[in-house]
Amino acid sequence: MTNITSTFPFGKLALGALLAAAAVFGYRQFFSSGESEAGQYRTEPVERGDLSSAISATGTLGATATVEVGTQVSGTLQSVEVDFNDNVEPGQVIARIDPSTFQARVSQADAGLASAQANLAEARASAVNAQKDFARKSQLAERQLVSFTDRDLARAQRDQAQARVLSAQAQIQQQAANLNTAKLDLAKTIIRSPVKGTVLARNVEPGQTVAASLQTPVLFKIAGDLTAMEIILAIDESDIGQVRVGQSATFSVDAYPEKSFQGKVKQIRLSANNVSNVVTYPVVIEVSNNEQSLLPGMTATAQIITSQKSRVLTLPSAALRFRPASAASAASGPPMGAPSAERSMPSAEERSKRMQAQLGAMRDFLVQIKASEQALAVFERSAAEYEQQMQAMMQRMAQGGAGGFQRNASGSAGGQQGGGNRSNRFAERFAKSFEQVRAQLDQAQQARWDQQIQSLFNAKRATVYVLEKGEPKAVEIRLGASDGSRTEVIGGLSEGQQVIVGSARKTP
To answer: What pTM value is reported for the model?
Structure first.
């Protein structure tokens, strides 16, 4: 029998394959076991940047002034002298109505005026003759050469002649008014543009009959200067409180999807619209259209910027939604009745960090509102004094021991409710400490200063997670404004710190 092992070394090959597989497995196990736990999570840094919050709405672009031109007289259009998109000037002839009928009326009124003037001359001659006859008969009656009856008759004839003069004068005024009316109607046969603008619509043709009535037909629609346009937005009643005149706005149109246009809030109209129990308010956005690229009637999707901050700490909004699996049990909190003094009472280091974050936020705010150098100098002095006071207060709290706080933390519900006003008390203390800084600001800056303090101390709290020794660590932070993708961090984190935004997907 032939020895197969000696002629074909199958056993050696099998052994080599097994050793190679074991080496690969060991290699993978080695590096898998050495992989950091940090590789299980996706992180992003806390960065400084500009942050703005906005209200979105849609509206229609239109001219600031649109005039509908009609006719005040009836007739047949003799000519139409403008067309769509033509630019017109004030007083420019845009159409003519056949004037023949109105010219005849002018001639008729002119003849009536001449007749009235002739009647007046005749009446005046009769009045002069009647006056002379009355004077002569008055003298004769005094000499008893004529009867007093004849004298009285002459007086009546004189008065009648004077009345005919007055009537003739009134007829002249009436005929003059008729002549002016006829001339005005004749002038109205020439239709002129009342404004400078562009013809948007032409609804008539030469030879067409137009009739003036209580509802005058629209012959032309003329838009004012299209270099300045406006958008009327329908803002929901829940958002209208955030809108102010002068706020910036951005918008886009379907004709230029990759281009953004700028505008400004011009007017907030008080006339509410109620459609299906949804209340909205019209907000007018003024738009510059020097390039003439925007056209009337375009649908605009606009965002009114209600809050804008520069160089503030921000983190990805996804970090606020992340929760590690290990935090499921912690999210439910401690057992009912268990003391939570350690969680409720921050450490001295944490309180110091919060204070520094508050001071830094207000310092950045002063730079943002372009406060004077004097105001910044006063702030630095006040900040140093405030820091000393807070450090002294924290030392007194530390000397009191943790046990005292535990008694408060595990006390009655009334004590907890009393602690709910803690933020307001700290805000009042902060505002009082920086009264000199506020005095250096103008009225508008003071209003924004007060608002910033309230938002700083009444900011919403949230929990995010950072990596510490490869494990997620919960950090409590204060939140400010948000634009949806990023959220302002008022305190609790520092610039450059990595926050967990999600779990990393494992690849085979």
So the answer is: 0.53
